[in-house]
Amino acid sequence: MLSRVFGFGRRSFSSLSEQEILALAISSEEDDGRIYRAYADGLRDAFPQSAKVFDDMADEEDRHRAALIRVHQERFGERIPLIRREHVRGYYERKPDWLVRPLGIDKVRGQAEAMEDQAHRFYLEASKRTADASTRKLLGDLAAVEKSHESLARRLGLEHVPESVREEETASERKQFILTYVQPGLAGLMDGSVSTLAPIFAAAFATGDTWQTFLVGLSASVGAGISMGFTEAAHDDGKLSGRGSPVKRGLASGIMTAVGGLGHALPYLIPHFWTATGIAGAVVFVELWAIAYIQNRYMETPFLRAALQVVLGGSLVLAAGVLIGNA
To answer: How many domains does the structure of the chain reveal?
Structure first.
C-alpha cells in the first residue's frame, strides 16, 4: 500500500530505456483497449449507439498497439519487456470500469477524453527520449492522434451518436436514475417523515421527557428504515420492471426512511422540552416542503398538488400525534 502511495520500488520515467518506453506504450495501449471495450459492454444494453463509440475507440487502440509492436520487432526483436504503468513512478493510472460504475454517459465520455489527454502527454515525453527517427516519428504521430483538434470520443460521437440519439440516451439515463434512486428514496423519505410524526410527538406530549422521546424517535426511524429497505429490495429484482439493482434501491429507500424520521427525532437531544419541540416542528415543516419539491422536480407532480398532498397529510398525522399524546 505504501509503495503505491509513495512510489517505493517504482522506476522513474527518466530511467527507462528506449525499449522499455516502447514496452510501456504497448502495455498502456492494451490496457486502454480493454477499458474501452469494458465501457462498451457496460453501455451496450441501455445505450447501444454510445457503445459503438467505445468499440471504435478500442479498435483504434489496437491499431496503435500493433504499430508499436512492429517498431519494437524491427529495433529490439520479439521479446517485449514486461513493464506496466504501475511500475513507473508518476505515471498516470487508469481506473478499471468497475470503479467508475454506474457507467453514466457523461462520466465515461469524460473519462475517455481524460485518458486521451494523458496518453498525449506520455507520447510527447516519450518522443523526446528516443534518437531513432522511425520511433520518434511514430511516437510523435501517436501524440498528434491523441490530441487532435477534437478528441476521438467526440469525433466518433458525432458519427454514432447524433444529437437526437444523445438526447434520447440522456433522457433514458435520467429515467433510470429516477427509477433506481429517486423514486425509492422519495418513498422512503415520505414514509420516514410522515409515519414517525405520530409516535414521536405522541411520546413527546405524553411524557414531556425529551430523552424518552428521542429514544422512541430513534427506534421508530431505524426500524422503519430497515423495514422499508428490505421491502424495497425483496419485492422487485428489477429485471422485468427495469428499475435497476434491488440493493441500490433498498439502500436508497432504507437510508432516506431513517433520515426522514431522524430529522425530527434529533432535536429531542435538547433537554428543554419546548425548545426541542419547536425545533422539531420547524424540521417537519422543512421536510414536508422538501418532499413536495422533489416530487415536482423529479416526478413532475404539479407543485401545488404535491404541496397539498404532502403538507396536508403530514399536518394531519402531526395533529393526531399531539392529540393522542395529550389524551
So the answer is: 2
CA 280 – CA 289 distance, rounded (Å): 14
How far from 271 is each of 198, 206, 222, 266, CA to CA, in Å?
20, 16, 22, 11
pTM over 0.90: no
In single-letter form, the type of residue at position 90 comes to: G
Residue among 316, 321, 314, 318 at smallest CA distance from 190: 314
17 and 137 within one domain: yes
Q: What is the three-class DSSP state of 12? A: strand
Q: Give the list of residues 6+ apart from residue 157 with CB closer than 8 angstroms, or none.
A: 50, 53, 109, 166
Give 154's Cβ-side CA count (13 Å radius).
Answer: 12
Residues 6+ apart with CB under 8 A from 83: 11, 16, 20, 23, 24, 27
Digit-by-digit pLDDT tens for the chain (327 residues) are 444 444 456 788 778 888 888 888 898 888 888 888 888 888 787 778 778 878 888 888 899 899 989 988 988 899 988 888 788 876 666 666 555 555 566 677 777 777 777 788 888 888 887 888 888 888 888 888 777 644 555 655 555 555 555 566 566 667 777 778 888 888 888 888 777 878 888 888 888 888 998 998 899 888 888 888 888 888 776 665 567 778 888 888 888 888 888 888 899 999 998 998 889 888 888 888 888 888 887 777 777 777 777 777 767 776 776 777 676
Residue 12 β-bridge partners: 89
Q: Left if phi > 0, otherwise alpha if psi is -120 to 50, otherwise beta: which for 165?
A: alpha
Please tell me whether residue 185 adopts helix, strand or coil conformation. Answer: helix
- The residue among 115, 140, 161 that closes a domain is 161
Query: Angle CA(216)–CA(319)–CA(273) in degrees, nearest 5?
Result: 50
Give the SS3 label for residue 104: coil
Spatial distance between the Cα atoms of 311 and 39, rounded to a whole number of angstroms: 44
Range of the domain at 226: 167-326
